[in-house]
Specification:
alpha/beta; Rossmann fold; elongated
Length: 367
Amino acid sequence: MTRVTFTNSSYRRAIAIIAAVSTAVTVAACNRGESASPGAGGEAPIGVSLITKDSTNPFFVAMQKGAKEDATKNNVKLTVSSGKEEGDDQGQITAIEDAIARGDKGILITPMSNGVNAAMTKAREAGLYVIALDTPPDPADTVDITFATDNRQAGKLGGQWAAAQLDGKPAVIALLDLFNDKIVSVDYNRDQGFLEGVGIDVADPKKNGDEAKSGKYTGGKGGTYTIVCNEAGQGAEDGGRSAMERCLAKNPNINLVYTINEPTAVGANASLKAAGKTAIIVSVDGGCAGVGSVKSGVIGATAQQYPLKMATLGMEAIAKIARGGEKPSTSPGLDFYNTGVALVTDKKVDGVDSISSDEGAKICWGN
């Protein structure tokens, strides 16, 4: 086993976040008494459904893998399902209805959009405990609790870093979002957080694309900006490639690209490369592949999330509640439980906490 030496204060903080969350879960379990551990004492297994947005994105693959492992630990009979692809509301609705019909005790779900709100409400009315992972619904109280990254902060970290990298030069920006026909909190929080980090005024904080298309940014040394496009890449590499092509057709001088996730970023980079262009690319996810893209220079910086921790917290919470334990609480000042975030980059800038790609690789997820 490789010995890890901690030399970066922000890296230590990232590790501390994960350790603190793990401690909180352990303490919560201990508060139930020594003989009340989930699955102990001959307790019957409980039914839980994990419903992700799809089963191909490395983020959701990692979450499913973690949930399966935690199901065994918590004596849970787990059913895993997902939409066919990003945007498949009906696929998630069907999975929710199936969970109700099976008599499951709870649902862990990464909500596709507000289109599944009614189905989640129906599940709660049927007596299921519903926990959102990664994507807080709007409104937040549609579910019992959410375990997620602070996506606004994730976007903001990338924006602050990007503004410093521009060093006062004009910013010609492409925003590659998730959808253009659905409202998803992850989508607008990351996009709007990025703009806030760059120092661009947003209009409606829950709406993408309504900010002024040109003006001055105040992040870093400050300068002028032009927003060329808000294009939907559907969170996929091919979608990112097509979205970037559409943006370059509008303005070939784009020098800063925000992407909703790392597959989108890889697709965007492919389009830039094919056009003989380069740009600063920032993203969110922090999977091992994405961290590798940072190390290779494809992505300048990415905000790392912790999907395995989300799955662990959600699974333990449902198992505990189903067996008479207390419900979890949200993080102070937030309407969800914050599972932590760390910016991964090999181009550190003053005033923005970050960890290197080598450090990020030690705590990443996926292949």
